[in-house]
Amino acid sequence: MFEGPDAFICNECIALCNRYMGDNYDISEPDIDLGELPKPKEIKEILDQYVIGQDTAKKTLSVAVYAVLSRLYPIQQVEPAILQALEESFNLNWMTVVPAIALLVLPWFKMKAITSIAISCLLAVISAVAAQGMSIGEVLRVSVVGYEELNPALSSILSGGGLVSMINSVCIVFLSCAYAGIFNGTGILDPLKIKAGSLAERIGRIPAQSLVGMCCGSLFCNQAVSVVMTGGIMERYYRENGLGGEAMARDIGNTVVNLVGMIPWCIACSVPLANMGGTAAAIPFAVFLYLVPLCAWVTSRREAKK
Fold first, then answer.
1. CA angle 196–217–259, rounded 5-degree value
2. What digits encode the pLDDT tens for the residues 168-187?
3. How far does the chain reach from its first CA to its final CA, in angstroms?
4. Which residue among 67, 172, 259, 286 has the highest number of C-beta atoms inside a 10 angstrom radius?
5. How far is it, in rounded angstroms, from Cα 166 to Cα 159?
6. Domain-wise residue ranges, the chain
7. Angle between helices 244-254 and 223-240 in degrees, nearest 10
């Protein structure tokens, strides 16, 4: 017999209640299958491609993020359907990864980006013809109108691309630059430029760049427009502090380009989530999107102290 506040209960009743709950309720937390999380070493290697130095910060952040996410959402198994579909639809061999390897390796040999991309594209054509059995005409057609995958398991992932699909993006960039030019010419952005410069003086250029970019992304819901508008607003601060356009472009690449992808209603976030059947709950697992700005901020602080 166990005594509680103003009541008693016997051990047999406790056992009966416990058995009843176990038979009728699942009180365990559901495991969420998120695919295979990259290991801390892999996260750090990805950051090495975009952030120079700061090894201690990158290692610490990579381990911390992986530990928290893997603890909260343990993975029991990896869905093999996609891998099986890839094996059935394509001839997977060493030639398949050569274009990607070339694109990653060639820049380390001081090769220009446009040259690296051209070589990677040429290798991709060779791989498509030699490994996948496509004709030159089919490769050219796919390059123009895009690829259409017939396997339902891969259709949402692989279908698309081609020059035709870029028309909308080109128009968006053109209109964004046109609007930015109009705003600069009419002086509409001048008050924002002054406030953004003052904010950068107080909290640093990376946090200020991030806040301006997030505001633009939240307002315009488009990554390209956010990049152009952020550049127009922050340009005065970089020019007055002698940082130049290259530094501003690098900071925008480390902040705005990534952070806009974490705004649920922005195209850069909503479209990938819709294609993968995910929800906004998956955003915290886009570790790369917020680790790069964080590492860039740490780097900028150390540079400011030198």
1. 90
2. 778 877 877 787 778 777 77
3. 71
4. 259
5. 14
6. 41-64+132-305
7. 140
